Amino acid sequence: SSMASQPDELTLHLESVVDARPSRVFDALTDADQVARWWGPHGFTTSVIELDLKVGGTYRFAMQPPDGEMFHLHGEFREIHAPSQLAYTFRWEPPDPQDVETAVSISLADLGGSTRLTLDQGAFATEARTALHEQGWSESLERLRTFLSSNEAHV
């Protein structure tokens, strides 16, 4: 079976250069205390993070929007190759009627002091859900860049 996306598949592809080494970025993506500091769109807080970082391990995040009720996100780790690759399934609970489980793949390339983060997610059921995730990830990655460039990230 080919891994190439079908032309009609709705997928998301984002690239972002982060001012930190891949090992730091990988930690920020996989250490619960750090994830809590940047995860989610602007104004969201992620108050509870359960994360079992092993292939077949699961994660579950409780996300609190600025207005409205808390909701959850969960999935299972499929690939973990520190500090360069992370892949996991992604499912909302309760799901939106337009939601399907998607697969997220993140790769980190060493640019010599900084890191190119490439994120792929899909396949989505609708263009609206694709756009929503593109917005959410874009804002989350902005928060990640801010977190990693702040002093608090340097342990």
In short:
The protein is α+β, with helices and mostly antiparallel strands and 155 residues long.
Main beta sheet strand tally, sense and closure = 7 strands, antiparallel
Secondary-structure element order, N to C:
EHHEEEEEEH
| Low-confidence segments | none
Q: What is the spatial order of strands in the main beta sheet?
A: 1-7-6-5-4-3-2
Q: Determine the number of helices (DSSP H or I, runs of at least 4 residues).
A: 3
Structural class: alpha+beta
How much helix, percentage-wise, in residues? 25-40%
What Rg do the Cα atoms give?
15 Å
Shape, please? Answer: globular
The averaged pLDDT comes out at: 92
Distance between the termini: 43 Å
The portion of residues forming beta strands comes to 35-45%
Query: Count of DSSP E strands?
Result: 7
